[in-house]
Specification:
heterotrimer, A alpha+beta (124), B alpha+beta (128), C alpha+beta (359), B: 128 residues, alpha+beta, Alpha-Beta Plaits, 5 strands, 19% helix, elongated, C: alpha+beta, three-stranded antiparallel β-sheet, binds iron/sulfur cluster
């Protein structure tokens, strides 16, 4: 075991207060990412303080997903949120700098949010 | 602290022989173990197709009926995966597929290289 | 008030051969704001897990980046091994550590060269790369590739290196150490070099932490954080200090990298001295089921792989957050209020690797 990785499940309403708590406790934002699961979109917010790991997790619906932006708390979150917007189509009301879908120049919009991505071995 | 800390290095370089090679005349010797290009000894091949299935870039195609083994050199990423899985190699390493130290010659066109196995074509000459 | 002009910087720029574009809002010579845009070469590698099985995906992971390729492979393999609870032999861990540190050495030398090139010190650039070449030859002799090592696999390493060869590597590094000291001395003490870097692009400790900086960018601001202290691979048996500076400017970031060169040489020496024997791989049975955030220190900083598997041979989710992605925000912060002429130097000091940022 390299390190323990505690994860807390939260809801979209408590996201911003929880993130503020992290920031107040001196945590650094490590990464944010979404994953397409059969039951919806799972979004992970990973933090770190002196190599101690912490993770917040939210599950939202995959259709027209939306989450409050935490870029007001951690400014760097705007990069991750723009990334998630371009790849998964998640809307982030309150984003401090919105690239409006032009952060990644992808041929197909929101390709990562396709349900096929969770039915494991491809049949073809 | 000297005024110009680079002086020592510059003086050393002045008396050292060049660090680069005069390329077309002096070629870089091949380093042993280099993953250069895939080589097949077609006579040993049993056309099991393991290499084709394992290849991450699907560079290899094996046709058991016509006893041909083909490789698209531009697709190959010289990962050595095919050499590792070849069952003939398991008995005697390098007896069927092997990794050469030399790279393939540069090319501007994509071409599949066919190797025709013996028996049906006893000539056994690889028509590259 | 002076007129505001927008100057586009990149994605094709002589000093920065990386596809990042910055819109620099300038007033006279002063940059007021910088808006980054990336995504010119998004490859969608994360999506490829649906097509490749988890063992073969190591090849893809290695090809995310052309410089820290080995550590990308290592991060991926460590993540899978952690999920599957594989006991990787010590010798494989030691070899991974050696190759990882060799990657760090050659990456930092490459960066020093590019840095010298950015402020126009052409001969210094050549010397850094000359030293790097010796190292690349050793890498090729042990792994078979100069850039893509292809040596890491789930469950261990694909090749072994003889003890004689390891001793030879240490001998070569011993010889290189003095040469590196001579070359890096120029970065440390030359007044013209200092003039370009000292006091330029300052990031305070608080800013670095708040903006999520990683690697040398974070450590140069006085935060002692190095993922190697987690003790993955062989690092739990190694004595090494986290290198920090407190100034937080370009010079500090440069000095952190220079000190890390010597630290890496020392780590390789220590590993070779206590090199365990035995096999270099274990058999992998079954499919992974679970999730793990694999964190490893790359030359550019902490890389995070999120791996989620559901018991099939294809992973459910693979996500790579590369160090440059985390360092983009500090870069943007740094650029606010700087001189236009300093932009290339600052952009370089985060050691940007945009290609791996976009996967
Ligand atoms: S070396 Fe790798 S890529 Fe090349 S043919 Fe063999 S398996 Fe395919
Ligand atoms: S794995 Fe070996 S024996 Fe089988 S088809 Fe490929 S080259 Fe021939």
């Amino acid at each position: 075991m390299i390190e323990a990785q505690p994860t807390t499940n939260i809801t979209p309403d408590t996201l911003v207060p929880e993130t503020q708590k992290m920031k107040a406790n001196g945590y650094r934002l490590v990464q944010m990412c979404a994953s397409r699961l059969p039951e919806g979109l799972e979004v992970n917010y990973t933090f770190d303080k002196d190599c101690a790991f912490a993770n917040l997790r939210i599950l939202i619906a995959a259709e027209s997903p939306s989450l409050p932006s935490v870029s007001g708390v951690y400014w760097a979150a705007l990069l991750y949120e723009n990334e998630m917007h371009d790849l998964y189509g998640i809307q982030f009301p309150g984003l401090v700098l919105d690239f409006k879908g032009n952060f990644y120049k992808v041929a197909k919009k929101h390709a990562f949010n396709e349900a096929a991505s969770c039915t494991a071995p491809a049949k073809s | 602290m000297s005024l110009f800390p680079m002086t020592g290095t510059i003086l050393k370089s002045l008396f050292r022989k060049p660090a680069t090679r005069a390329y077309p005349f002096v070629k870089r010797p091949h380093i042993a173990k280099t993953r250069g290009s895939i080589e097949i000894k077609i006579d040993a091949c049993i056309y099991c197709g393991m290499c084709a299935r394992k290849c991450p870039t699907t560079a290899i195609t094996v046709d058991r009926a016509t006893r041909t083994w083909s490789i698209d050199r531009l697709r190959c990423i010289t990962c050595n995966g095919c050499v590792d899985v070849c069952p003939v190699n398991k008995k005697a390493p390098g007896s069927c597929l092997a990794m050469r130290e030399s790279y393939t010659t540069p090319t501007g066109t994509r071409e599949t290289e066919h190797h025709q196995g013996p028996e049906k074509a006893p000539a056994a000459a690889p028509k590259a | 008030m002076a007129n505001r002009t927008i100057i586009p910087f990149g994605p094709q720029h002589p000093v920065l051969p990386e596809p990042i574009h910055l819109d620099l809002v300038v007033e006279d010579e002063r940059v007021i704001e910088a808006i980054p845009s990336i995504g010119f070469i998004h490859r969608g590698l994360e999506k490829l897990v649906e097509k490749k099985d988890f063992i073969d995906f190591t090849y893809v992971a290695e090809r995310i980046c052309g410089i820290c390729s080995f550590i990308h492979g290592q991060t991926y393999c460590q993540g899978i091994e952690e999920i599957m609870q594989l006991q990787v032999p010590d010798r494989a861990k030691a070899l991974r550590t050696i190759w990882g540190e060799m990657s760090r050495l050659h990456s930092h030398l490459l960066w020093l060269g590019l840095m010298a090139d950015a402020f126009g010190f052409e001969s210094l650039f050549m010397h850094c790369w000359r030293l790097r070449e010796t190292l690349l030859d050793e890498i090729e002799a042990t792994t078979g590739g100069r850039v893509i090592f292809g040596s890491c696999k789930v469950g261990g390493t694909r090749r072994d290196v003889t003890d004689a060869k390891l001793a030879e590597i240490v001998r070569i590094l011993d010889g290189m150490e003095q040469e590196i000291r001579d070359i890096t001395g120029v970065f440390m003490s030359d007044s013209t070099v200092k003039h370009r870097m000292r006091g330029v692009g300052i990031i305070t400790k608080e800013e670095a932490q708040a903006l999520g900086a990683v690697g040398p960018t974070l450590r140069a601001s006085g935060v002692a954080q190095d993922m190697r202290t987690l003790g993955y691979a062989f690092f739990n048996k190694i004595n090494f200090k986290t290198i920090t500076r407190t100034e937080g400017d370009c010079q500090a970031r440069c000095e952190v990298r220079i000190d890390e060169l010597f630290a890496s040489i020392d780590i390789i020496r220590q590993v070779v001295a206590q090199m365990p024997g035995g096999a270099v791989d274990v058999e992998v049975k079954g499919n992974p089921n679970g999730e793990f955030f694999s964190r490893v220190e790359q030359p550019r900083g902490e890389v995070v792989y999120y791996i989620k598997a559901n018991g099939t041979k294809n992973l459910q989710r693979f996500r790579a957050r590369t160090p440059t992605f985390a360092n983009l925000a500090p870069l943007v912060k740094m650029l606010q209020g700087c001189d236009l002429a300093d932009v290339p130097v600052m952009a370089l000091t985060i050691d940007p690797c945009i290609s791996c940022t976009e996967r």
